[in-house]
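Notes from the 1:1 (GR / supervisor)

We went over the backlog. Supervisor wanted to see one worked example end to end before approving the batch request, so GR pasted a single chain during the call. The sequence is below; no edits were made to it. Supervisor asked that the structure be written out right there so they could see what the output format looks like.
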Amino acid sequence: MTPVQHLSKDDIRARVEALGPWFHNLDLNGVMTAPDHFLGDYPAVKWRRFEAAIPADLTGRTVLDIGCNAGFYSIEMKKRGAARVVGIDFDEDYLAQARFAAEVAGADIEFRQLSIYDVAALGETFDVVIFMGVLYHLRHPLLALDLIHEHVAGDLLVFQSMQRGSNEVEPVERDYPFTETAHFDKPGYPKMHFIEHDYSNDPTNWWAPNRACSEAMLRSAGFTILAHPEEEVFVCRRADAPTPNAAVYPARSPKDAAR
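Structure output shown during the call:
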């Protein structure tokens, strides 16, 4: 059997069609996987806007790509010399695409079928965690960030979410009287828009935070924002989680605990 790296363009094109449809438009030895993508050359067009904010040399470092889809970011991290890259996704069709793309690229990447809510099963932390294009597809987004912080984030988190609403960030006090409500209506107050049905013909689009909400959620989960190189992208460092920090609602209230 011909090694995948040495397949002809026609053979690659046939495999691409068999594994389609693709969301990532990858260049597999001159064969584009999604040339008619509605976002253009995606995700390469987005990557070019923030790639300079990611360490160019990842030699000796480990990377976890959560919601890896067809593996674009996994392959890019391997190009930067990462010692080990693990990509996880819940969709086996995407994982089949990712495995094929990595083979064509000659990239040694481990792909596993795993939900974001089960990242503890990996049993290890990673120097860099990629969490791109996943949050808004989740029913429980803050839980996902809590689990990333608790179980797999060792140093850097690269986060991206679809955002809607204001791009302003309003200063927020640590507390407000119960009767004060005006701040909730300010455009720059953290807001998460809930999508009950479909958005852009996609029933998995559940949430759309504004910029202030993205930042607030990251801080709430225990991440310090280092850079905001692109409208929807935040590069963060893992820090101590604020207190209290519970992935599930506490069994007892502070009043009960004092009894």
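Supervisor's comment: Residues 255-259 have pLDDT under 50 and may be disordered.
Batch request approved.
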